[in-house]
Task: structure prediction
Amino acid sequence: MCATCGCSAQDGNNSVTIRLVKPGLQHFQNLKPVQNEDHLHADEHPHKHPDHTNQHQHNEGNKKISLEIDVLAQNKLAAVRNRGFFEGRNMKVINLVSSPGSGKTTLLEKTLVQWKPGVPVYVIEGDQQTDNDARRIAKTGVKVVQINTGTGCHLDAPMISNALHELNPEFGSVLFIENVGNLVCPAMFDLGEQARVVIMSVTEGEDKPLKYPHMFHSSDICLINKTDLLPYVDFDMDKAISYVYRVSHVQDCLPVSATKNTGLENWYRWLSNLLAQNSSQVTAKVQAL
Amino acid sequence: MHELSLVCGIIDAACEVMQNNGATQIEEIELEIGLLTGIEWEAFDLAWQTARRNTPLAAASCHIAKKEGRAECLECGRLYSVVSLADVCPECRSYFKNIVSGEELRITALVVK
Ligand SMILES: Nc1nc2c(ncn2[C@@H]2O[C@H](COP(=O)(O)OP(=O)(O)OP(=O)(O)O)[C@@H](O)[C@H]2O)c(=O)[nH]1
Ligand SMILES: [Mg+2]
Ligand SMILES: [Zn+2]
Result:
């Protein structure tokens, strides 16, 4: 059984797979899974502070051990390693999170075509079962690696570290990571990214931030997507924005329509600012959870 | 769903400590879990009952110390209890805060045999 993802060794269908997706390939079954058998984080447990253990004898044969083990330690350690890798290669890494269907892939498709950072751009796609999104991304000509999490509801840092071997990103590049569509679980799992972007859409209701505060709390910027649908839905933008600020410290809250190209220039400006920052100036938010 | 992830993490870490101590069974486990972690207790319980089957924790008793959420107001500095991340400072009505506790997720003790 792995440390932080929900897969258990008993369930053979549950293995995480990672592979490069190229344009033109029709079925992902045709692609050789790179990491198929290899259960990503099995058997590489870092030592969990044996020094901190403080033992004394209990009743016959029983021994009580005092510990201070952070359950997420393994993920945090891998995230710190990823962050070091990104800094070493002078990369900017952005983790996109949202409920299913808020528009992560659509926003990425637009961004990859319209934003011109002048450096190589890569994508890691997280999805439970399919590589549909990765194929959409591959069509833009950008190098994309698919991670299928099986029943796992989030990407974790060891998965990203494995995907990086596949991707081998160039010095000074930008990497977008599309997380599994889920507003709860990805919040707890730092991937080593320098910025986390939470996307909500106007069809979801303005109280999303209050219902799922953790995801907003752990994000650096919030995009409110599908503003083209505002005339048809009951959505109070000002209220939504005030709720976002109530539960988070986001730098900005940007209303956009990914399909109608509205407001995207603000998003690109934010990205370009991030890119212009020195890696060491980016105060990465290490997850407290 | 991530309750299962967390439970698997707990079982894994506990089993490693058990092995490092030359033991084969875990009698008791003590956890410290913050109330701001967003854990759903029903889901956690279900995950715990399911995942520990056929592990050295199958018969272990589990004690959970739930830690209340506390925040520091970034406007006036007041420390206050929070039940939700959306709570407001009772002093100055600001929402701007740092969480100082309630996000713990730790194994604090094991009794092994
Ligand atoms: N009207 C409108 N529809 C949009 C907009 N952005 C995305 N959509 C639609 O919303 C649906 C879901 O978009 P995706 O980009 O696939 O969403 P996602 O967040 O990647 O979804 P998952 O990967 O399944 O979590 C698609 O039908 C998109 O065409 C928008 O700005 N306006
Ligand atoms: Mg998508
Ligand atoms: Zn205050």
About this structure: The radius of gyration of chain B is 17 Å.
